[in-house]
């Protein structure tokens, strides 16, 4: 071990060879560095060699008692040489520099006793913690050592930091040339490994030595604490310890060992350690000195000592467990004032506001209200919100609210609390939001904090209060132009015009909204770019009111690329993403939506997560992935219950009802429609989706007149609100389908043609659906061409559910024209697509079509599977596409092979599954044509 060399050195000095005069060895080192253990080793060695040992242990508690150490030495002497007990007079203690006249006989007596003892045998005086020895004992010891010329006398002492009388008395001895100084340093990693070998075995000791050293800095007492904790765990655990049991884990015994290291340094040392624990580090000695009211010189000494003993490293605790036990060691009446003082000192130094707030929050003690506290807490809340530490932000704001005496400041704090927590738990903030409605409407709440309150009130359907608050914002924006309020106000007006356009209370603000102006107009040198907030809401309103606008779509994409999601930008990001959804940019919208769902889920922002889940459900519904629609819409209502949605609940409910209706789950849709909804829901854009979904359900369940009423109501609202574009809702097609069931062919045709005209010539989902409905109004011989066109448009635009319906109609049209082979092929394609979409009712209706061959039926029910298993992967792909109605040329283009190769594959397929013609191919081969088409 590393200390063997020091032991040998001491033994040579004290017990080997002959030298004139006494021998003195001083063992020094930090607290718990092993000084006492080394001293005991020396005394044990001396006893084994026949050396008489006179031991003594100095104690800080006995330092004021004269001759306490000397009396311990006398107790170890044989009775025949032991002098009478020393009882000096008071005058012996009054001279701080030397022995009084009355003390001289006592010193001489001690000298004679040493001479007598060393004449009989070698003598070793061993004193532990000599720095705590009383002054009279030190004088006797120094007197005897200086005058004893016998080589048989050896003295070994262990000492810590020397201060006061002990330093003066021993200084002349400890710096003589004949003195041997042994300075014990903490163990190195190698030394720790050697120590651990006896406990863990050589292999595990080498593996874990660095970790043990990292926690302890090589401190023997701390190492023993870790090993004792390990032993305690093993005795409570299984007989065969699990892997990793030997890794160091700071337990109770380790914490107590650390506390012992601190306490052994004395009161000032302990106070410094408590101060470091409170601040978290010791890098700023002046700050630490002011906190604990200890001189900087002593603070530096204590920090150096704490570092030397392995408690600190780089100004910080090596183990959080040590900091915790030191904080727990402070009494409550000490802890509160210390935290308060630390917060004030940090605030004055301009420290991180969150660090200041943690001290204020750690122990809130009653006391005078100081002006700086509220500001410090507000600053910390702003930083905490930016770092997404919501609980900390709320704690800061609530504490600031308790401290403030200003009414406007208190209202501002309440508004900030609402804004901070609304994305995470709106339900918890509804009462606070409602309490702010009055102050916001009367102008007591500052305008910047009023805007989030307005948005919250709109969602709750409290339009009168929202209008009153908006009036205050408008007034403030007019009085203070150029402060950003005008931009925020215009963004709200754009949001109102596209989301809440049917409220007389809000009409004055809508009337003030100027024309959007052209997109992408180059800016002059003196102009600044439009804010992302305005851009996002302008883009959304453009698409909702005019249909797909490529410039608006590009603008929304730029917003998503440049704006980071936060409390202040969540509506901006949401509006930009809605623009892509309504514009049927499914792939891009899905990518952004999935990214935002993941981000908000990781942050725990339940409300934001719910909003983006609804958008994801809307995307899935528009592309025809009905199961995904249900999954995302249900998750949205799980993350944010219906009460939390307020008057916007029509969106998640509308998605669910629409999807269940398309899937044929009419009981589930009816149950959702039976749930109570707020009356204000029908007066916003989100309510349109609910109304449209209810109409679809009524049409599917045979209530045509009720469906027609709802479809018309959708159209009337959309027209009145300026949102009647194909991008919003295709109410005309719903009404047209309803008229078809009532026999109103002409009305249905007129509505379908209107929708087709609005859709334009682009290959959109709406155009494909309009062509499908229009085909149903035409004579039989005209339907096939329109339906084929509809299938092509829907395939290009990605409207899979509508494409399945178009294929089903095309199959029926071919059947009515007597083309049964083509009808069967179209039915198979429609069936596969319906299965993929989750359109179970459509799938069931297609399976009832009596155009399936016996071999196809056998394949769907799992019969004759051996024949299909013989097909190669290439043959299976070709057969699946052929069964879905694709021509050889189309198959060759899709699979990047020649037409001849397609024909060869089909010939082998026919032979292997024992069929003779293409129309007998089963429609159940495992190849997803719908999403590769």
From TrEMBL:
It holds the Pfam family GerE. SMART domains: HTH_LUXR. Transmembrane segments: none annotated. CDD domains: LuxR_C_like (cd06170). GO terms for molecular function: adenylate cyclase activity; ATP binding; DNA binding. The keyword Phosphoprotein does not apply. It comes from the Bacteria. Keywords: ATP-binding, Nucleotide-binding. The keyword tRNA processing does not apply. GO terms for biological process: regulation of DNA-templated transcription. Signal peptide: none annotated. GO terms for cellular component: cytoplasm. InterPro entries: AAA_16 (IPR041664), Sig_transdc_resp-reg_C-effctor (IPR016032), TPR-like_helical_dom_sf (IPR011990), Tscrpt_reg_LuxR_C (IPR000792), WH-like_DNA-bd_sf (IPR036388). Residues 864-929 form the HTH luxR-type domain. PANTHER family: GUANYLATE CYCLASE DOMAIN-CONTAINING PROTEIN, TESTICULAR SOLUBLE ADENYLYL CYCLASE. This is HTH luxR-type domain-containing protein. It comes from Streptomyces antioxidans. The lineage of its organism: Bacteria, Bacillati, Actinomycetota, Actinomycetes, Kitasatosporales.
